[in-house]
Design a protein that fits this description.
This protein has helices spanning 7-17, 21-79, 92-130, 148-155, 162-172, 175-182. The protein has 185 residues and is an all-alpha fold.
Amino acid sequence: MKRHLPPVVLASCLWLTAVPADAQLARCTAALEELRVAASEAHGQSSDLESMQDLLVTRQGEFERCREELDRVQRDRQRSGVTTIPSSGECQSAALSAQSSEMSYASAIAATREGLGQLASAVRTVELTCQVPLGAFASVAEPETRSPACRSFLSSRPSAPLAALRVVCESAMSEEECAACVGRR
């Protein structure tokens, strides 16, 4: 024997659980605004990260040129019979600048990761509040372009500075693989 709920009981249950359309729309709009803010912040952090990376490459290049110039001067002095060796302290400011840039770059990476985490949280909030599965519209992720050796090398040293990675990389992979994995020295 089937039991039928009286229409009044069924209607009252639906009425109590239903969210008014204006309130749902308002929450959806607020969630979308949070998503817009999170996307804007993540974009800014990503731009900052790119700038920091460019600065890091510049500072490391300056340090490398200073060391090469110092080596050239030392070789020239040795050839001409001068026994005094130039001080390696001449490149100290370039080295400190490069190290400072590395630390700033690492901080920018952390800030960008945090911003992307907030963006992902905002996306989930929009999906729940607006009842739209945004992930369903996402494109397929591009395949990993790094070699398995590079992925293994980088995953075993997650917080190592870029300069240290470049030095250690050459003992683990060929010069070409290192250049593709962590960039040129």
